Amino acid sequence: MTKGSNVALPALSEDVGTVIVSLGWVSPTGEGDADVSVLLLDANGKVRSDGDFYFYNNPVAPDGSVQLLGKTPTEDGNEDRICFDLTAVPPQVERIVVAASRYGGARFGELENVRVRLADAAGESLLRFAIADVDAVSAIIFGELYRRGEEWKFRAVGQGYDSGLAGLATDFGVDIEDDAAEVEAEAASEAEAEAASAVEAVEAADPVSGDGQSETVAPATTAATLEAVPAPRRPDVAEGEPAKRTAAARPRTAKKKVTLPSAPPKSLAENDSWKPARLFPVSALKSDRDREMRATSVLLSVMTQVPRFGRRLTAAFGAPSGRMETFTEVSLPHGDTPRRPDGVIRIERAGKLWTALVETKTNGNALKADQVQAYMDIAARRGYEAVITVSNDVALEGSPLVDVKIDRRRKHKVAIWHLSWAEVAHQAQLLIQHEGVGNAARTWLLQELLHYLQHENSGCHGFQSMGSAWVPVRNGISDETLCQGDPRALEVVENWERLIRQVCLRLGGDLGLKVLPAQRARRGADPGARRIQQADQLCHEGRLQAELRVEQAPGLLTIGADLRTGKLRTSVEIPAPEQGYPLTWAKRLVRRLAEAPADLHVETLVEGATGGPRGTLERLRPEPADLLPKGATRITGFRLSLFKGMGSTRGNAESGFIRSVDDAVHRFYTSVVVHLDRPAPRRAAAAKETVGAR
Asked: Most Cβ neighbours (<10 Å): which of 167, 431, 499, 616?
């Protein structure tokens, strides 16, 4: 589409009751990012109340019409996806504005390939709009959905704002209370008082259940949630009840602060041999068939009993928000022999049914193409919307796990989606430890599900094998016999990418923060070509490397595996402060790392050289001045690194290479990165002035 053009959605697809809008961009450095927001507007072009403003502090509409799904890795960066159930949008809403903003003074001109894409409920892309000329703006309206009679249309807008998210929201009638600087100042001066009063407020407002957990907020984040910015409208406000416009309820655009989960309460067991009674026992599981049946039933039943969890999983597949029912071992006719998918999900909304067949695999078993193909054919004949596969494997962008043929002659389209068990556990962990699900009973159900998935006997462990090529490739690198173009190197690179995505899920679930692979891809980059290039690099250098972008971290977290030496290296580079003296920087860095491991390697990065002074933290603690280079060499930053052995050479179990990578990333973040300051963002204008002055 071009700027200002519009199109009717029914003209593009018959399945537009639910649509997925994806906003994307590419960061040349791998560090840039932006946040999406949505505003529901009435006939006057204003929000009806602050509750019509959806952003990172208020991501879900109570009626299910809007849900911010978060970021998803793509072949050329990341996409931020939003699910709209257009059948649930209140009739008073005539326009839906879709926007994005950059935080802390950054500008969209630092990003490339800024675009918006819209897909129907089957996941088929319907339109794309690329936005140019975004140099000086900090917020952009990408497009808008609007009513014309009984149908919805989309308009490509591409309008920029200099005033960021707060300015954009204010223009549409949202009463913004403050800005980020104000919140940070308040937090610095009154942190202890706010934390104490927050706990008292929760205890007074929400009765505590028998297990000591709040009815509305996960216990691990009670203080952090109330310290942070309140959402414009609480999710449990009754429909039709007017929102109270008090100062405390006004939305703030400062990002929420999340703390690590607190320690669990002390057990009443006499010794470690006493095991708690579990809702979903795993001791009786003897075969793969038993594991698949049990895992399917456990997952689908919890999805119906914990609506927020069920909605979190199905919204990404284009499912509407409504009454959900799930079934297992359903018999469906298919030729001479009926087929029995592992499960069926049905969601009813406004008298219409959305149906998905579910096929699960556990214990590392691969999905069977003929089996999934049969379910696709059944779904197409019966008018079902989707087939969902669940397994330990992780799907890659542009590389489907199962090769199925889709009959384009059929009028009804069936979407195929994949969900890894690691993603299921990730979503459960986020809700339990960081977001909350409404009451203690639902929290307990999710805890039981998470315990089941993490039990060694469940078979739902996520990605666990580096594949059959792993050992030959390691041996080939060690013997210097691995040649470029060897297909086994490409297989290792693909599995390394799967592993990194799973590591991001696990770390993000632990922290309650967004953790994504950082792609330094350029516009139009092909994921297959990128992986081939990485495979050639693996053959030449013997190393695998990836970068992770962790929300609130001072820089990209790098994880590298040197297959020649058998070592893992986790590191982060932090820029030098803009003001002060180098000796002051070195002393302050060493003080900040007082609780970091003594074997942490610290290296000074200097301008125009491969590296500056370096040493272990143990040696540098008494003499921080050893970090300073000789002469007038300019310091550009510091690199902090930890080294760890790669574990078992087999790499086909969590106790080997995969577990080593996961442990290395988690240890580095929790023992090093958490102690570092997040540097103040540099405004684009100031940066340009500095360059001009030189």
From this structure: 499
